[in-house]
Amino acid sequence: MTTKIAEKTTPTTASQDQTAPPKRRRRILLVTAAVIAILGMAALLFGGVPGTPSAASDTEPTMTITQIIPLVILVVMFVVATKWPLNIGVMGLVASFGVGYFVLGMTDKQILEEFPASIVLTIIGVTYFFSMAQRNGSIDIIVQSCVRLVRGKTMMLPWVFFLMAAALTALGTFSPAAVALLAPAALGLAYESRLHPVLMGAFVINGAHAGGFSPLSVAGVLVHDIANKNGFPIDQGALFLASFALNFILSALTIVLFALLGKLRDKHSNEYTALDAPRIGRPTGQQFFTLALIVAILVCTLGFHMPIGFVALSAGLLLAFVNIKEHQTFIGGVSWSTVLLVAGMITYVSLLQHVGVIDTLAEMALALGAPLLIALVLCYVIGVGSAFASSTALLTAFIPMAGPLLATSSLSASGTVAALAIAATVVDVSPFSTDGALVVANAREADRQRVYRQLMMYAGGVVLAAPALAWALLVPTGIM
């Protein structure tokens, strides 16, 4: 061992050339991200776009110190979580207490008013039940059945899950519920067929968003009603088709990206799944019971619109009685790190909304002047915000802000609102959102950290590209 360590630490030029570039690239990326964030905030705080009348206006909205401090802390948290394997949710909860208690003078009850209890319950319930289903081999039965159906054409599997998720949400299923239902089988199948788990997770989420704005869906009805109340009615059918088309294009681009990076096939699969284990034969009694419970969950959530968190917990409790000796092991199957991640980030971003950071950023965007530029900035602001917070909440806040823009320009209401809605939802592939967190939670335990990091990098690319893509295809073209 001493010899190996000595060889690795020998300061030769060759070893430096091999180890330095990755570290240097990481430092460059971190510094670049920090500089962009600082310059972006400086531009917003001190004048918008130089040389424009709005930049010189005395009435231009500016941020107060109580808005600047938590925004800077958010940037620092993101940089720290990128560089070190620290749970950003824990940082978010601590920052919520520090900013809320010491800066804003809030009580603990006021700080936790926006604590995402329903989302936390969904993650706990789904990971509790499906960890049990994974351990007793029921998920493997589903996975192997899917493998037989595609007859070895594994590259068709992501599209199968894309269409399944789109069908669920188009029929009225809330997108996190659709992802929660499909992610366990999708991720298990990815490991079994040696597809990259991030690719499979991205297709499930994109599919859920593809059908997410149908006239029957919660989000579709919400956006339509908000637009009507604010005096710019939109075409629901066009909104649905635009969302489906954009998510389909994004999924196709994802395939191309993973192919170019050589990541379509996951070379690490053998490390995280026992591919050499004997194939499962006839299901046992416990597996039959588990599969029946999965069907019951589908019926309750899709047919009767019952909350999936409570339903999954109830099914898990019934299953625990069948194998009560391993109940403590099943409790350990809950993805507590994901619970902390989502709870901490949503609580902190809700604090940003409470002090008016999101509203001020939107007002600064409206002060830019050029309608097309304003629409692009709004797409990016809502996209970046949704990567960390509730898409539904941001849609509710941002769509009314498009009213003054639409009233003073010739932009299409349907196209502009569709671009905002799509920009707000496609970024939910971020591990800080519910959908992305569910993908991380359903990764193999030993592989969870890798999936989290790679999903975060993929989400960063989506945040950079997707709002611009939605804007370019829907706003300047006037296609809607």
Can you describe what's shown?
The chain is mainly α and 480 residues long. 73% of the residues lie in helices and 0% in strands. The protein contains 25 helices and no strands. Helix 20 (371-386) runs antiparallel to helix 25 (448-474), helix 23 (413-426) packs antiparallel against helix 25 (448-474) and helix 24 (434-441) packs antiparallel against helix 25 (448-474).
Order of helices and strands: HHHHHHHHHHHHHHHHHHHHHHHHH
| Secondary structure tally: strands | 0
Helix-residue proportion: over 70%
Cα-atom Rg, whole angstroms? 23 Å
| Uncertain ranges | 1-22, 39-58, 274-278
Strand percentage lies at under 5%
The structure class reads mainly alpha
Biggest sheet details: none
**Would you tell me the overall average pLDDT?**
79
Work out the helix count. Answer: 25
CA-CA gap between termini: 66 Å
Blueprint (SSEs and pairs):
Layout: H1 2-9, H2 13-45, H3 53-56, H4 65-83, H5 88-103, H6 108-111, H7 117-135, H8 138-150, H9 157-170, H10 175-193, H11 197-210, H12 218-229, H13 236-260, H14 269-272, H15 285-303, H16 308-322, H17 327-332, H18 336-354, H19 357-366, H20 371-386, H21 391-398, H22 402-407, H23 413-426, H24 434-441, H25 448-474
